[in-house]
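Narrative of activities, Objective 1.

The group set out to show that a structural description can be obtained from nothing but a protein's sequence at a throughput compatible with the screening campaign. Below is one input-output pair from the validation batch, recorded exactly as produced.
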Amino acid sequence: MYEPRSFPIQWDDDGRPTKSFTPDFYLPDEDVFVEITTMKQSLVTKKKRKVRLFRARYPDVDIRLLYRRDYLHLAFKYGLDAAPPSGSALVPTRHNGPPLVTRLTNRARSASG
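Output recorded for this entry:
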């Protein structure tokens, strides 16, 4: 079971932590922390800054930042149901068997012919 771990990334003049970062997941077999961001761009920028500060303070700790496209790719690759990120047109769905990809132009041709 993952017990969230917070890492201080900024301190005040007295040495007290003023900002911390808590990664979303820890993969113990790989010894890797994972942070997932599927949010709007303004929040992604803030999260990237926190990861940058984290890496500067903890260079020996492996952390991976996964973006919306990474999340959707993994969900599709492994056939997982995924809740659509807000405003996203691409939503993976569960299919029996191998993934099926249909080009809209082919679908339009078969419907008209």
